[in-house]
Amino acid sequence: MASIAKSVILMVIMVTTFTFVASSISTIRQVCKSTLDQNFCLASLTGYPGALNANISQLAVITANISYNESINVEQFILGLNGSEGQKNGSVSSVPLKECVVFYEEAVSDLLNSLSVLRNPMGEDPGLVNGLQSGALTFVGMCNDEVKKLASQLAPLVEARSRNLGKMIDNALGASNVLYGLD
User: Fold this and answer.
1) Domain boundaries defined on the chain
2) Global confidence as pTM
3) Which CATH number is associated with domain 54-179?
4) Which of 5, 100, 152, 160 is deepest in the core (most CB within 10 A)?
5) What mean pLDDT do residues 94-108 have?
């Protein structure tokens, strides 16, 4: 009798856990459907702490936060390259990297502002978050255009990091679009 009770309890726990995980993944899938790289979105969000338990509003904040933090990392990476490139090849060849830093300053600012709106919504226009995140994505693309002017091995390094950041921003756009019904 005791083993039947234990089996029933175990079965209830398994069903509850499966239902919870399935509903959590469905929220992530809903977000990822509106991104350009759904596989990247699913892989990055299902592995991120707290994402599986998040509702759509929390997922929008999580993805915006990921994008913001990564934009700072890429900007710092480019700043480091700018110093080494300028010393190695003269100041003229570092102009594209300096331009990238300017574009990344704008991207970081846009992502921080979108994160602020998502964290503290006070009747903001839903298009504001979309516009800020789209702007950040544009600035990242403008950096890639500048980097292509470099005749060095640094271009692929910056392009790869920027491309990855672009996918993260796209995840944030997907989440905010679902949140605000813009998808």
Assistant:
1) 54-179
2) 0.82
3) 1.20.140.40
4) 100
5) 92
